[in-house]
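A quick aside before the break. I want you to see a complete sequence-to-structure record at least once, exactly as it would be stored in a machine-readable document. Don't worry about memorizing anything.
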Amino acid sequence: MIRVIKCGYESRHKTKFQLIRKTGVPNYILLMVKSKALFRINDKLIETNPNMVILFDRNTPTDYGSVDDFFNNDWIHFDFMGEVSIFETLHIPFNEPIYLSRMPMLSNYVRLLVQENHSPSLHKLQIQDALMRLILYSLDTQVTDHSMSLEESRYRQALNQLRLDIHNTPHKKWTAEYMAASVHLSLSYFQHLYKKTYHITCMQEVIQARIERAKFYLSTTDIPVKTVADFCGYENQMHFIRQFKMKEGLTPSQYRQLCQDSNNASADGQGNA
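That is the input. The structure line, written in tokens, reads:
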């Protein structure tokens, strides 16, 4: 579990502000700085601009403050309790300023974290743990996006929204031309950028979204296979069956029967327990 030790949201200082911890603290510190600031890192004084995040490792000396007579940040002291730190699996560097394009989203998560910190909620610790993971994984995503070229990152949000739309409405008549136009790119560059970003072509994404939706209907309803095909954007039932079998190795009817057999076996097992 990730334990939040102390946190703050929109911590504003209207006078000259400086905070020094010569030996650091025995936990991690995440700062989201919304104003210009001065940081001393490895004996070097660095002036940072707004929308900067920095993650301090445990027991790291910290020395930072305002440039002018104003300082504003969100901050979290936290640590991992009863589990290994997840930072080895993330790309977030320690003790290094990171500039973000979507700081408000992270800041809103901190606001919720602070509210929960002062809440008498029965599941307070579990909710804080979930919010901390949301913050860290979201930050990691932005750090990864930051490594993209300027041209790629410029379209990342539009591509993410398009991908969400595909999976949310796989029944739409998706074409590569329509998708390229929706993000205001030429067809050839859009196809190149989509595959480079998601390691799958845009039409493969559509097929994947339709098959996943079909599997959901087949495993949870008794509606006819033709209706499933219609719900998933297929105008031709045989085309749906061929494409489903190519992806899953089973026809839709065989897949449905397999799910039913599995559910019956689970129910029998529970009844005999």
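Two observations worth writing down. The beta strands are 2-13, 18-21, 28-33, 37-41, 44-48, 52-56, 62-66, 71-80, 98-99. The mean pLDDT is 91. We'll return to this after the break.
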